[in-house]
Amino acid sequence: MEDQEQHSDSSETVIRIRDLYKSFGDKHVLQGINLDLQKGENVVVLGRSGTGKSVLIKIIIGLLKPDAGTVNVLGEEVEQLKDAALRALRLKVGFSFQSSALYDSMTVGENLAFPLKRNNRQMSKEQIRKTVDIVLEAIGLPDSINQLPSELSGGQKKRIGIGRTLILRPEIMLYDEPTAGLDPITCMELNKLINAVKERFNTSSIIITHDLTCAKEVGDRVAVMDEGRFIREGTFEEVFKEKDGLIKSFYDYNFTQ
Ligand SMILES: Nc1ncnc2c1ncn2[C@@H]1O[C@H](COP(=O)(O)OP(=O)(O)OP(=O)(O)O)[C@@H](O)[C@H]1O
Q1: Where is the ABC transporter domain (predicted)?
Q2: Percentage of residues in the chain having pLDDT higher than 90
């Protein structure tokens, strides 16, 4: 922990979470979460279903209030922000939903342009088109602008979902189960995209998953969540060096079946 604190001080911390607690009635979901995300870093949060990963993300973007603890995002204490400031902060934090959340009746181009039109009304049609083209190229789907979501594969929809988040050029990306429900090859492509986004757009990311291949491929650091706390944290190799308890179950389930 001491090492971690020293590291935090020597680089820019974009998310700093301290002693976070959240319960729903007598269900104690988060029980003392501490986490730092450094600029330009990908941190993977690994955990079984129902361990509170989504609750954590919702607290980070101010959709849920914690019972105790602090969350600082890009220098702002999330809990103290009023509505307008919270909305402004959310523009800098892109949230890529598990479901892709595309509008079925809109083309890919319209889906991507939607957040720009809603948030940046002073952009001309040409500027919007150019921004959409840049993102489509970055996510590897340059020719899909006129397609409807129903014409896309699951992996392509995920890419467009990520593109729609990227279009506002967030400084932080939060990915919720980016590879869920995809075949291994498409997963691999998505992992590459997550790394490419980091390099090209200089984003810092939290990636929530239970896919260990994804964790290994994209995580500069991995934090394993169990019963509301992080039970292990480090590089993938450090975390999975000693395979016991939950760590062993995770590893065996992903790699030895
Ligand atoms: N608004 C809420 N009210 C009551 N309980 C909630 C609420 N939100 C989450 N929970 C409970 O908190 C626990 C953690 O939920 P969460 O969605 O964060 O899990 P998760 O780790 O993201 O799981 P999964 O991997 O399945 O998405 C669950 O037991 C859930 O039922």
Answers
A1: 15-252
A2: 73
